[in-house]
Amino acid sequence: QETWEVTKDTEREVKELFVKEGDMVEQGAPLFEYDMEEAKTEIQQAELELEGMRNDITSLQSQINQLSAEKNSASEDERFEYIAEIQEKQNSIKQTEYNIESKKVELEKKKEAIDKAVVTSEIAGVVKSINESGMDSITGDTAAYISVLAVGDYRVKGTVSETNIQMLSEEQPVILRSRVDEEQTWTGTITKIDTQNEAKDENENVYY
After folding, report:
1. Are 21 and 127 in contact (CB under 8 A)?
2. 34-39 CB contacts, 8 Å cutoff, 24+ apart
3. Is 34 exposed, middle or buried (CB count within 10 Å of its CB: 0-12, 13-18, 19+)?
4. Taking the CA of residue 19 as centre, how many other CA atoms within 13 Å lie in the half-sphere pointing to its CB?
5. How far is CA 114 from CA 7, 30, 41, 119, in A?
6. From CA 154, how far away is CA 63, in angstroms rounded?
7. At 60, which helix (H) or strand (E)?
8. Which of 2, 24, 63, 130 has the greatest count of CB atoms below 10 A from its CB?
9. Sheet holding 30-34, edge to edge
C-alpha cells in the first residue's frame, strides 16, 4: 500500500496532536497543529514596524517639500546645500521603500505559516506510526513525524525492460497472474510508470 509521510518542522513546536497510532483518517483530516503564538507576536511587531516606516516616508516627503520651498528663495550659494539635503532625504525614502517591501515579504511568510499551522493528511488511511522526536533513533537523521498507510485496493510493483515499457501506459487495464497458481488472476489498472528510477541487471546489462 501507499505510505504518506509528513516530517515535522524542527524550528516549530507542536501545539496539539489530533491522532494516535491506529486511527483511521480521511483525506484532509487534521493530524497536528503547530504552536504559532510566537509567530503571531512577530506579525504584530512587523505590522508596527511597517506603519513606522510609512510614517517616516511621509515625514521625509514633508521635509523635502519644505526644503524645496526654502531653496527657491535662497541665495545661489545656499541652494547647493538645499539640493544636497533634498537628495539625501530622497535616498532615505528609497531605502525605506526597499525596507518596506522586504518587511512585507517577511510578513507574508509568517502569515502563510499561520495559515498552514494545522497539518492535514494528503491521503485516506490509517495512522501507521507517530515519532514524537521526529528523529531516527539510530542515525540521528530527520525522520517522518507521522506515517499514514493508505487503505483500499492493493498495489503491485514490478519492473519491465526498456523494450516492453513502450507497450504500457497509465490507466491501461491489466491482468495479474499468480506465480504459484496460474488459474488465480486479478484485474487491475496501471496507475504509475516510473521512468526516472532505472534498475540495471548486472548479469544481462539490461535496464529495467
Report:
1. yes
2. 34/9, 34/113, 34/117, 34/118, 34/119, 36/12, 36/113, 36/114, 36/117, 39/110, 39/113, 39/114
3. buried
4. 26
5. 17, 15, 11, 11
6. 73
7. helix 37-72
8. 130
9. 14-17, 30-34, 118-120
Cα–Cα distance, 129 to 110 (Å, whole number): 29
Residues, the chain:
208
Q: CA 112, CA 103: separation in Å to the nearest integer?
A: 14
Q: How far apart are CA 137 and CA 202, in angstroms?
A: 34
C-alpha cell at 181: 497458481
pLDDT tens over the chain, length 208 residues: 788 999 888 888 899 999 999 999 999 999 999 998 988 999 999 999 999 999 999 999 999 999 998 888 888 888 888 899 999 999 999 999 999 999 999 999 888 888 889 999 999 999 999 998 777 777 777 788 999 998 877 788 888 888 888 899 999 999 998 889 988 998 999 988 888 877 666 666 666 5
Tell me the HSE value of 13 on the side-chain side, using a 13 A CA sphere.
6
What residue type is assigned to position 97 of the chain?
A: E
> Would you tell me how many other CB atoms lie within 10 Å of the CB of residue 31?
21
Measure the CA–CA gap between 186 and 154, rounded to whole angstroms.
11
Half-sphere exposure of 104 (CA within 13 A, CB side): 9
